[in-house]
Design a protein that fits this description.
Layout lengths: L7 H4 L8 H18 L14 H7 L4 H14 L3 H18 L6 H15 L5
Helix pairs in contact: 2-5, 4-6, 5-6
């Protein structure tokens, strides 16, 4: 996956990032979304706990998303387990964004996290 370089102006900017209170509210809202989603499923409270069957039902993606994930799987030589984890993480990213559907940008972010994980975050 190709990542574009960050401009120096962004790196050296003095602007503040998203305040912790705003992030906290998004996380609370995402947890509420997940609690509602799994309210009728015993023992499951968050996306990370989904079974493979639930994953196929809950984490539907568009053709664009499928192609993106397919290319990432091939290029990064990822396993079926990694595929499932990427879908679960992308579902959570969509929940944090307040989106009912997983968008390609949510998949791209989850794939990016997975590629960082494979590199051990140190490169």
């Amino acid at each position: 996956m190709e990542v574009t370089p960050v401009a120096f102006s962004e790196l050296s900017s003095r602007s503040q990032g998203e305040p912790s209170e705003v992030i906290r509210e998004r996380v609370i809202k995402a947890r509420e979304i997940q609690a509602e989603r799994y309210k009728s499923v015993e023992g499951i409270f968050v996306n990370a706990q989904m079974s493979s069957k639930q994953l196929r039902e809950i984490c539907r993606i568009s053709n664009v998303g499928e192609n993106l994930l397919k290319r990432a799987m091939e290029k990064l030589n990822l396993s079926a387990r990694a595929y499932d984890r990427i879908l679960k993480v992308s579902r959570t990213i969509a929940d944090l964004a307040g989106n009912a559907d997983i968008q390609p940008e949510h998949l791209a972010e989850a794939i990016h996290y997975r590629s960082l994980d494979r590199e051990g975050w140190a490169g």
